[in-house]
Amino acid sequence: MIVVDVNVLAYLLIPGKYTEAAERLFQEDPAWVVPRLWRSELRNILATYMRAGQMDRAEAMLIFQRAAELVGSEEYEVETADVLRASEQGQCSAYDGEYLALAEFLDLVLVTADAKWVRAFPGRAQSLSDH
To answer: Phi and psi for 111 in degrees, rounded to 5?
Structure first.
């Protein structure tokens, strides 16, 4: 079981440069955990693709549904104090802090494409490119 940031989830479901790495990660460990925030963040990614004319609403809805099925019940609320501590330590947004705080709370690795997180949380955060 691993925590993944929303970009890793998007890379798995939206074909692109990092899809193969996300697929390898999913084969290694298909039990992905996320903070409940993932829903809003993925909606934002999908809306960005729609605005750019790279997908229509029906395709975006399908991708969101596939993501929800993949995550299943493995989404969690994170304590505010934990999010703020992680955000301060990693010098990152509270949104990013949710993923880091969840990984710490569950004592799991966070897999991310964000090198800043990997530098700020060695041992806790791993790069998607390492998989």
So the answer is: -100, 130
Single out the residue of 90, 102, 127 nearest to residue 1, CA to CA. 102
> Please, which residues have CB within 8 angstroms of residue 111's CB and are 6 or more apart in sequence?
2, 3, 4, 5, 8, 25, 125, 126, 127, 128, 131
Residues 6+ apart with CB under 8 A from 41: 6, 95
Long-range contacts made by residues 56-63, C-beta under 8 angstroms, separation at least 24? 63/13, 63/14
Q: Cα Rg for the chain, rounded, in angstroms?
A: 14
> 88 and 94 in contact (C-beta within 8 Å)?
no
Angle at CA of residue 89, ends 105 and 124, nearest 5°: 45
pLDDT tier for residue 92 given thresholds of 50, 70 and 90: confident
**Cα–Cα distances in Å, from 111 out to 33, 53, 104?**
10, 29, 12
| 48-88 per-position pLDDT tens digit | 999 999 999 999 999 999 999 999 999 999 999 999 999 99
Three-class DSSP category at 97 = helix
